[in-house]
Amino acid sequence: MFDIDLWREIFQSINKNRTRSLLSGFTVAFAILLFTILFGIANGLKNTFAEAFVDDANNSIFIRSGRTTKAHKGLQAGRRIQFKNEDFNYIKDDFGNKVEFITARIYRNAQASFRNEQNNYSLRAVHPDHQFLEKTKIKEGRYINQNDLQNRTKIVVIGRLVEEDLFLKTTALGKYINLNGIQYKVVGIFTDDGGDNEERLIYIPITTAQHIYGNNDYIDQINLTYNPEMDYNQAIAFSSLLTRKLKDRFSVARSDQRAVRVRNMAEGTKQVDAMTGGLTVIILVIGFGTLIAGIVGISNIMIFIVKERTKEIGIRKALGASPRSIVSIILIESILITAIAGYVGLIIGVGVLELVGPSLEEYFIKNPGVNNSLVIGATITLIVAGAIAGYLPAKKASRIKPIVALRND
Amino acid sequence: MLKISQLHKSYPIGDSSLHVLKGIDLSVEDGEMVAIMGSSGSGKSTLLNIIGMLDEADEGEYILDGLPIKDLTEKKAAVYRNKFLGFIFQSFNLINYKTALENVALPLYYQGMKRKQRQELAMFHLEKVGLAGWAQHLPKELSGGQNQRVAIARALAANPKLLLADEPTGALDTKTSYEIMEFIQQLNDEGKTILMVTHEEDIANMCKRIVRLRDGVIMEDKKVKQVRAEQYV
C-alpha cells in the first residue's frame, strides 16, 4: 500500500540531512558517470573499427580484371582481360545458390549540369542489387530497377551532395539532369554512410551505360555478396573456387595475381571481429571495475548512515516504531537517493559524451555512446547493492535495544 | 497499574557479570507519582528501562496494566510502548531535524493516526506545555527547558497510561527544573501515573512516594508529603 506518511518521513529525512544525502548521492552519481563515460569511450573505439568496414556489406567479394603477367596456354603476357555481360551471367548462373546479391559496375566520369550549375562527378553504371551491396539508402524516389535494365531507360539516381550542388535548395526528383550532353531523369536521391565521396556519385542502369558509352557489353568490375549463411571457411573456399574458375575461363595461369583479382572481405572481417572482441573484454573489465568501486562506496556510506542514525532509531523505537518501519525508512531512503543520483550520473555522463564526442573523432573515438539499458542495468545493480549494504546494518539497528541506542556517549 | 516481583537483571562485563537488580518487588497504583532514588550504580535506571520495555529482565515477573510483559517480540513491544508508555529523558532525545510540532506528532504517526488529526493533537499538547508559539522551531533553536517541555508534550501525545521520566531535570538549572516539576505535578494531578528516576532529594520530595535503591535492592519505600513546585517558581 502506498503510505504517504512514510514517504513524507523519508523526504523530510533526505531534505533535512542534505550533506549526508548529497554525499551518498555523489558517490553513486560519480560511479555511474564514470561508468557511462568509460563505456562510451570504449564504445567509440569499437565504432571506429566497425566504421572502417561499415560502407560495404561485410560479406562482399569484389572481382576486378587487369593485364596478364604470365604467358599461359600459348597466350602472351600483357594481355588485357575484359569482363563482359556473359561473365556476369556465368557467375550468376553457376554459383546462384552461393550468391546473395550481385552487380556489375562500369566506371565513367560525367560533366553534369542543371540550369546554370555544373560539376564533374563519378558515374557508376550498376544492376539493381548494387543498392544492397553498397548499403545505399534511398532518401527520395527509388533506385534503379529491372525495368530500367530492360528498357535502357535514361534515368539516374543521384547522391545527396549532387542534389545539393546542382539543384541548390530545390528538389531534384523528377527533374532532368544533363550528363555529357544527354538528358537523364532523376528518379531517386540517396544517402550513404561511407562519407561525402560516396554521396557525390551518380548511378545509372548498366544497360543504358553500355548502350550509350560504346554500345558494347563490357563491364569493369563485378561485386557480389556471398550467402550470409556460409561461415568464414566456406566463404574463403567459395572465393578460391570462383578465382580458379574465372582464371580458367580467361585462360589465365592460376599463379597470375594480376589478371583476375578476387578480394573477399571475409578475410578482413575476421580480424576486425577479433579486435572488437578484445575491446569488448576491456570494456567489460572497465565496467565491472567501476561498478565494484561504486558498490563498495555505497556500502560504506550505508553503514555509516545507519551508525549515525542509531540514536534516532532508538528514539523512534521508544516512541513505538516497529522494527519493520525502521528498516523500510532507511532502505527506501537509500534506494531513493541511489536511484535519483544514478539517474543524474547517467544524464551527466550522456551529456558529456554528447558534448565532447564530436571532438574525439581525431583520437579514433567515433560516436561514443552507451546503450541505455546497460547503464540502467548498472544503476539497478548499484541500487540493489546499496539496498543490501543498507539492509544488513538497518536490520541490525532495528533489533538494537532502544536503551543501547539512547545511551549517551 | 504495574506490579513487579523478584526482578533480576545482570550485565556481562568481560568474563564476569554484574548483577544490577537483585530481586525487586514493586507495585504502583493508578495516579501515583513515584521517585526512584539511589546513587549511581544502584540500578535505578535499569529498573526504569525494564519498566519502559527498553530493556528486558533476566528473571522475575512484570505485569503492566494486567498484561504480563515477557518474551515480547520486537513488534509487540513497539505496540505496547506506543500505547502504554510515555518517555521523558534527561537529554530530551528529540529528533534534531524535526520541528517541535513534528517531534510531538511522531508517536501519533506510529499509532497510524492521520496527518491532519495528529498535527492538531500535537498542537494541542504543545499549547498545554505553553510552546504553541514555538511549534515550527527546531530543537537547537529552543532552550533546555523548552526542549524538555517539547519532550513532555511528546510523551503525553499518545495519551499513555504511565509516564516514565529518567532524570527529567538532570540537564536543567534549578529554576527550570522546578518549572518542569511543576508541570509534571500538574499532570499527576490530572490523574497520570508517573514514575521518575532522580538523585536529587528536592526533586524526589516533589513526588508522592520515594523508593530508594541500593546495590540492586529496595532499601526503603515510603510515601511522602508532596512538596509543591509552584512555591519555588
UniProtKB/TrEMBL annotation, chain A:
Give one GO molecular function term. Answer: transmembrane transporter activity
Task: Alphabetically list the UniProt keywords.
Answer: Cell membrane, Membrane, Transmembrane, Transmembrane helix
The portions of this protein that span the membrane are 21-42, 279-306, 326-353, 373-392
Tell me the superkingdom of the source: Bacteria
Q: Which residues form the MacB-like periplasmic core domain?
A: 21-236
First and last residue of the signal peptide: none
Under which name does UniProt file this protein?
ABC transporter permease
GO annotations of cellular component type: plasma membrane
Q: Name one Pfam family in it.
A: FtsX
**According to its UniProt record, which protein family does this protein belong to?**
Belongs to the ABC-4 integral membrane protein family.
Automatic annotation (TrEMBL), chain B:
Q: Which SMART domains does this entry report, sorted A to Z? A: AAA
Task: Tell me the GO molecular function terms.
Answer: ATP binding; ATP hydrolysis activity; transmembrane transporter activity
Give the UniProt entry's GO cellular component terms.
Answer: membrane protein complex
**One Pfam family in the UniProt entry:** ABC_tran
Key word NADP present in the record? no
The ABC transporter domain is annotated at: 2-233
Where on the tree of life does the source sit, at the highest rank?
A: Bacteria
Q: Does the keyword Membrane apply?
A: no
The UniProt keywords, alphabetically, are: ATP-binding, Nucleotide-binding, Translocase, Transport
Q: Per its UniProt record, what CDD domains does this chain match?
A: ABC_MJ0796_LolCDE_FtsE
Protein family membership: Belongs to the ABC transporter superfamily. Macrolide exporter (TC 3.A.1.122) family.
> What name goes with this protein?
ABC transporter ATP-binding protein
Instruction: Tell me the organism.
Output: Wocania arenilitoris
